[in-house]
Amino acid sequence: LVHLRTGHCYLYTHLHRIGKINLPDCPACKREPETVHHYLLQCPAHRGARARLRAEIGAKNMFMEKLLNDRDSLKPLFQFINNTGRFRNTFGGI
Asked: How many domains does the chain have?
């Protein structure tokens, strides 16, 4: 969670910033840089997982501050992360 809050996580924008990869482009949609905001709220490749998250926490709570800081959002957020499989190679299932 701290990694998502700070942006220092295994998303391509951060990996590009620290010189681990050549491009920051999202590996899932290849449309724009893979930032935390893009991953959680915009990437079309995660639309299904995001719809389940939205159903769980409500559309009015689908913004960064609420997702990353509200206790009631944590379990649904971790389920979203698990459903996308984005960090599975790094951390395994959550």
From this structure: 1
* pLDDT of amino acid 78: 93
State residue 22 phi and psi, 5-degree precision. -80, -35
Instruction: Report residue 55 as tokens.
Output: 């159903």
Structure tokens given for 8: 């220092």
Question: pTM for the full model?
Answer: 0.87
Closest CA relative to residue 75, chosen from 37, 24, 46, 61: 61
Q: At 6, phi and psi to the nearest 5? A: -90, -15
Q: How far is it, in rounded angstroms, from Cα 56 to Cα 22?
A: 36
For residue 26, give every residue at least 6 positions away whose Cβ sits within 8 Å of its Cβ, in sequence order, or none: 12, 32, 33, 34, 38, 39, 43, 45
11 and 32 Cβ atoms separated by less than 8 Å: no
Grouping H, G, I as helix, E, B as strand and the rest as coil, residue 25 is: strand
Q: What is the DSSP letter of 92?
A: -
Structural domain containing residue 52? 2-91
